């Protein structure tokens, strides 16, 4: 998970540049605070959903598990991450689009900053 986690920080920085290019306002603070809330929400749900699925399957610790509990274990730890990973890939492939290459956006921002000083 090291590569995807590292890429998130790059994407955040890129969105700050894009927001400044698009609106003229550079707002890294609001982006970081909003992403902090999203990280907390994701961590909470990422911990709670597997537990809810195990409970729905009738999981009982330190006992032989029922077929339904085994299905929920497989869903929680294999299929749900695979499905959510595919959804994330599709979102990044089709939603995360730039109107221009990032290098051109950065060059325009630098030119704007030189003209304003």
Automatic annotation (TrEMBL):
UniProt keywords, alphabetically: Membrane, Transmembrane, Transmembrane helix
Pfam families: MFS_2
Membrane-crossing residue ranges in chain numbering: 41-61, 73-96
Keyword Transmembrane helix: yes
Domain of life the protein comes from: Bacteria
Name of this chain's protein: Major facilitator superfamily (MFS) profile domain-containing protein
Species this protein is from: Paenibacillus donghaensis
């Amino acid at each position: 998970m090291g590569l995807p986690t590292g890429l998130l920080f790059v994407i955040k920085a890129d969105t700050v540049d894009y927001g400044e290019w698009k609106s003229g306002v550079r707002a890294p603070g609001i982006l970081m605070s909003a992403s902090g809330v999203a990280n907390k929400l994701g961590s909470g749900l990422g911990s709670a959903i597997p537990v809810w699925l195990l409970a729905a399957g009738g999981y009982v610790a330190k006992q032989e598990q029922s077929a339904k509990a085994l299905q929920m274990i497989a869903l929680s730890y294999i299929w749900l991450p695979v499905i959510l990973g595919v959804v994330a890939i599709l979102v990044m492939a089709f939603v995360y689009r730039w109107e221009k290459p990032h290098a051109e956006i950065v060059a325009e921002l630098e030119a704007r900053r030189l003209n304003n000083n």
